[in-house]
Design brief:
The chain has six helices and ten strands, in the order βββαβααβαββαβββα. By secondary structure, the protein is α/β, with parallel strands linked by helices.
C-alpha cells in the first residue's frame, strides 16, 4: 500500500507529546529509523513531510514533538517564546530528545540497532545535543542548526557520527561557532563532518524562508545538495559494521 502515516502519543510526566510516524507498510524486515526534530515553530508540516520523504527512502520517519500536544507557534514572537525554555534548560531539551529516541526504539518494525536523527534550525541544535549526551544512536544530521554547546556535556564521549550542513552566510551561526564545534567534537572523540555552502543563509532548506534582513533565505541548490549529503550519510552509517 505504500507509505502510511499515523500519530502516536508519548509522555514526559504529565506532558503529552504527539509524534508523527511515516513508514512503508510493505517493508517486512526491521527497518532503520530516523527521528526528525522540528524548527522553532513546532512540529509543523515541514518536518512531517521530511518524515514521509525518509519513508520513501526505506526508513521509518518520526517527526518528534518537543513542545507537547504538537503545539505550533503563530509567528516569530510566539515561536521564540516556545523555544526559549529549551535554550535556557538544555537538560530539559536533552530529556525530551532522549524520550523521543526511546519511543522510536520501541516501535514495531524498527531495527533498534539502526537509528539516526536529523534536525532543522532549532532542531539541528536538538539532535546535536542528543549526540552530545552520549546517546546510543548511529548518527545525527544538523541542517542549518544552532551550534552553541549546552554546558552540561563536557567530558562525555560522543558515540553518534555527526554531519553538520551549514550556510556560510548564516548570521545566527558565525564562523567562530563552527570552529568551536569542530574543536568540541574532536575532543569528544566524534566521527564528524561539516559541509559549508557558500552564499547561503540560515533556513536554506525551507521554501517559506524569505527574509534577508533576518538572514533566513531559501536556497534550492543548497537544499538539494544537503539532502543528498544526508542520504549518503544515512546509507553509510546504517550499512557499516
Amino acid at each position: 500500500m505504500g507509505v502510511q502515516t499515523r500519530q502516536i502519543e508519548y509522555f514526559d510526566g504529565a506532558v503529552r507529546m504527539l509524534g508523527f510516524v511515516a513508514c512503508d507498510d510493505a517493508v517486512s524486515v526491521p527497518m532503520p529509523a530516523v527521528l526528525v526534530a522540528h524548527m522553532w515553530g513546532g512540529r509543523e508540516a515541514f518536518v512531517c513531510d521530511k518524515a514521509r520523504a525518509l519513508a520513501d527512502l526505506g526508513y521509518l520517519g518520526f517527526a518528534l514533538d518537543l513542545y507537547g500536544n504538537a503545539k505550533l507557534g503563530s509567528g516569530p514572537e510566539e515561536n521564540a517564546r516556545l523555544m526559549q525554555p529549551f535554550l535556557e534548560d538544555r537538560a530539559l531539551l536533552q530529556r525530551r530528545m532522549q524520550l523521543a529516541l526511546d519511543t522510536v526504539r520501541q516501535l514495531e518494525g524498527v531495527d533498534k540497532s539502526r537509528i539516526a536523527a536529523i534536525g532543522f534550525c532549532f532542531g539541528g541544535l536538538c539532535v546535536l545535543d542528543l549526540a552530545r549526551t552520549g546517546a546510543d544512536l548511529k548518527g545525527v544530521v544538523s541542517f542549518h542548526g544552532l551550534l552553541k554547546p549546552p554546558g552540561n556535556t563536557q567530558g562525555r564521549r560522543i558515540q553518534a557520527k555527526i554531519l553538520v550542513l551549514h550556510g556560510h552566510e548564516d548570521p545566527m551561526v558565525p564562523v567562530e561557532d563552527v570552529i568551536a564545534l569542530e574543536r568540541e567534537l574532536t575532543e569528544a572523540g566524534a566521527d564528524w563532518q561539516v559541509h559549508v555552502y557558500g552564499h547561503t543563509m540560515h533556513a536554506f532548506t525551507n521554501p517559506k524562508a524569505n527574509d534577508p534582513k533576518l538572514g533566513t533565505v531559501y536556497h534550492p541548490v543548497a537544499e538539494r545538495r544537503s539532502w543528498q549529503a544526508m542520504r549518503n550519510f544515512l546509507e553509510e552509517i546504517f550499512n557499516s559494521a
